[in-house]
Amino acid sequence: MKWQNSSINETLKLLKSNYDGLTSEEVLKRVKIYGKNELVEEEKPGPLTKFLSQFKDFLIILLIIAAAAAALVGDRTDAVVILIVVILNAVVGFIQENRAENAMEQLKNMTSTMAIVIRDGNTKNVVASDLTIGDVVKLEEGDNVPADMRLLKSHDLLVDESALTGESKPSKKDSNAVSENYTNNMVFMDTYVSSGRARGVVVDIGMDTAIGKIAELIQGEEEKTPLQDRIHGLGKLMGLIALVVCTCIFALQFFKGVPLVTNFLTAVSLAVAAVPEGLPAIMTLTLALGMQRMAKSNAVVRKLLAVETLGSCSTICTDKTGTLTKNKMTVRQTRITAPEMAFKIAALCNNSSIYKGKIIGDPTDGAMLIYAEENNYRREELEEKHKRIFEIPLDSERKRMTTVNQFNGDKYVLIKGAPEIILERCKYVEENGEFYEISNNNRLELLEDLKGMTSEALRVLALAYRKLGPDEDFENRETLESDLIFVGLVGMIDPPREEAKEAVALCEKAGIKVIMITGDNKDTAAAIASEIGILKDGNVLTGPDLEKIDDEKFKEIVQNVSVYARVFPEQKVRIVKALKSSGQVVAMTGDGVNDAPALKKAAIGIAMGSGTDVAKESSDMLLQDDNFATIVEAVKEGRTIFDNIKRFVKFQLSTNIGAILTITCASLMSLPIPFNPIQILWINIIMDGPPAQSLGVEPSEANVMERPPSKGNIIPKRNLIKIGIAGVVMSIGTLALYYYELTSGASKISAMSVAFTVFVMYQIFNVFNCKAKGMFPNKTLIIAVIASFLLQLGVIYLPYLQHIFRTTSIPIMDWILIIIVASSIFLTEFISEKVIK
Length: 837
Known about the structure:
By secondary structure, this protein is α/β, with parallel strands linked by helices.
């Protein structure tokens, strides 16, 4: 149906709704009929498809061919074991991918869009997916439109419909318009309110909305992050090296007369063991689990890229109100010249409301509302007498809000906003019922009062009004907001959060600079910043001062500025650009519509949980408690996640290099290959499994926030040298013990059992080299190590497994040699730590 053709009353009648919305009982009935207000995602592959996809890997296909070849020459044991390994590998891969996917889905569910709805005559916050046909929804600047709606009321409403139309310029909307060809009286799901406010009734939800009908255009696979690409590239490089080495070993063994099938099995098994195919799944799982831990601490990461970048963050640009402060505005000081009018302006020029003792809307407006109520001026009672007939909403550029209300047949302009801006527009002052023209002395006195209030970290609003002439209209806003009558200053305090000072000090230790950017007065900004520990040199740059500085000059001084006051949102982008040009990795917080460009420009855009939907959609991370300390905790978690990724990469690559070197050197030395194909595959399963995964959940190191930000390299030069040394030591130790056993008269099977076990013990010991320094290993790691060791004992001592793995029992003296040789990896790590800088 074309709802734009219907008038407001016709629409409400057809939907069986009204201005006060639906009842809760009616909502429940309609949800059962119409379903949830959700876009249905394209169907994802089922469990069976996911499991079968594990067999598509080239090396797995080679293993299946190898198993078939073994069966053809009568080696059924090897054939069966290899097939079991292939299936086990598929199961492990399936479980890893499934866990990672499930963890990511849980995170998506944490970022639900909220809507302000009128039900049972009351204003409530609900999850947007719970909206139904006929619900009446309020829209404010910055809101995401939660469903397709026919407007019932609108005030200067501009809506960004670029998601639907591709048109970058916001569309003007009017609830009173009725047209067959235009949708000026409609707003659509997933568009954004650029400015103004409105009330609308839901006409379509979910897949029946305009965006729902083109849902397939917004479905798609998520792009890989740079870190995922680097891990994938690393796996490919190792795979290429492994294939080249394995081809060479195959050729060497072939010319030595080793049976073709055995030779082929060894080469393929080594290729499988040498390729770290588990790295991408373990990395995704580590990222997802880390993101879940962050979400429990109120930092919901919306994009994987943010987790990678957090570890490299070198500068945090943060708002003041609600982030560094408690966001519990309370009126502390006033300078009121006309109390009655001041209280009326505080209540009537206000869009917040109080529901069950909780403020719904802007905290500053909420404080003004409570201030008026405490003086017996209730908004509901005042609005019955003084109906609002026009409004210019507050926005971050104008820094003021204006309404026109009726007073006994006359029209009055009521205005509140930034004192400097309001005072410029005031011509008179009302005091004790008398009206005086503001003199220069009056203005200086008021500015002194303002300075005294802001020096005590108070956020100050000025209140003013004027009576409109009978012929005045509302078109010329400049005229409307001129020749005002000043009635007072209201100072509110938003005290610093107790944990903010500690968090700022922690950032200083971690080499992270904290910059405060606020729209508040310079003195207020300086007072709060000094108390928290951000401002130490007294240098505060204001928005007007910043306007006078050219880009080149600003780049030179940007590193020396810690506090920006009276900053306009578009200037945040300039600050981010200047910081990035000096090599900083910048995190930026924001909550308003105009903060979106800065959030997108920053390396990490952080939206406030109480902020606008536009800001949230533009961000990489959502701060549910609006707390600066949570950002710092997220940075700490980001560093830990990145450390853990480097840990399991170091562990797996040293294993892979050790295996390649051991078999290559044995072949070049004309020694029998120390591991048979089944043993090589066993090493791969044991090491790619629990030990590597457990390194992904290691706790933070004690000094994680006492070192400079990382450069984002998953294999730093220092680690690369350590990986190479560890691989060489494993190879030398394994081959030395293997050669000793062979030359001491031990049987080939006995020597191979010792070589196989010492290599496994190297991995078990090496996992402790890769864990978090100075921390007790996590429980998962301890369990993984114990389980791996017990499984290895089973392979060596259980007769049935001895037959499969071609092993024999190892005497106690050989175990002493195995432990001594394998523990050399600890000495290697100790020396590497001391020598490699």
